[in-house]
Design goal:
The chain is of the alpha+beta class. It is 56% helix and 11% strand.
């Protein structure tokens, strides 16, 4: 995990309001080169907790989606790890409806967003219903894909951390760590930057055992990636890197 991503998790973990989390995430995304950023708890206007996109523009987009089926929204609701889209990437999404192509075109024309990643986020009960975090860039397609290969994990960690922190602040929930000692050790080593092979060496266990612990951990926390598991552990204070 990139150091800047962990620094952001530390910073967002001290935020005391959802608004503070949103503003800190916007600054983080802009430091990463983003031209648009938004955090949404649902795909309706009242669901947007932080955004750099003008409200009138968002209202227009939401209006488009009410006129036809959006494949992008369907993908977000399915809970896949990330959705890559934009004017340079839409051709890769077979059968993309006109509504999605229209939104991509408007984002490019009005906000200079050529490429974007949307990270689907679960609700508090772990169900994916349409919440997420979106980050847009001016990058052309191949440049954007290279960016994602280089720093996609850091963006995912920061996005999940911000969204989770907002949920916690809105719910005012207090949780007790469900992590076993070994699971906490593995997440701690991930947080300080070790790769899976190095974690196995440090703990004197097989690579497959590390993967088994991570698989069990993701199932326990009802998440789909190790970045999401790490974000929850850091935000909840279950581990300290």
């Amino acid at each position: 995990m990139g150091a800047c991503g962990l620094d952001f998790v530390d910073a967002v973990g001290t935020a005391t309001t959802a608004e503070q989390v949103g503003q800190r995430f916007i600054r983080f995304a802009q430091d990463q080169g983003a031209c648009t950023t938004h955090i949404f708890m649902e795909t309706q206007m009242q669901g947007f907790r932080a955004t750099t996109i003008p409200h009138q523009f968002l209202e227009e987009e939401i209006g488009f989606c009410q006129l036809g089926t959006s494949k992008i929204i369907e993908m977000v609701q399915s809970g896949i790890s990330n959705v890559l889209w934009g004017v340079d990437l839409d051709a890769r999404l077979v059968g993309l409806p006109e509504v999605d192509q229209r939104i991509s075109g408007l984002r490019f024309q009005s906000l200079k967003q050529r490429s974007a990643v949307t990270f689907p986020m679960p609700d508090m009960d772990g169900t994916y219903r349409g919440a997420g975090v979106g980050i847009g860039f001016e990058d052309r397609g191949e440049s954007f894909l290279a960016r994602m290969a280089r720093s996609g994990g850091t963006l995912a960690l920061a996005a999940f951390s911000a969204h989770t922190r907002i949920q916690l602040l809105l719910s005012k929930r207090v949780s007790v760590s469900p992590l076993s000692k070994r699971q906490a050790e593995i997440l701690h080593l991930l947080a300080v930057g070790l790769q899976l092979g190095a974690i196995a060496d440090r703990l004197c266990i097989a690579d497959s055992t590390v993967n088994l612990h991570l698989s069990q951990l993701k199932k326990k926390l009802n998440v789909r990636t190790k970045e999401q598991a790490l974000a929850i552990a850091l935000i909840e204070g279950w581990i300290n890197p």
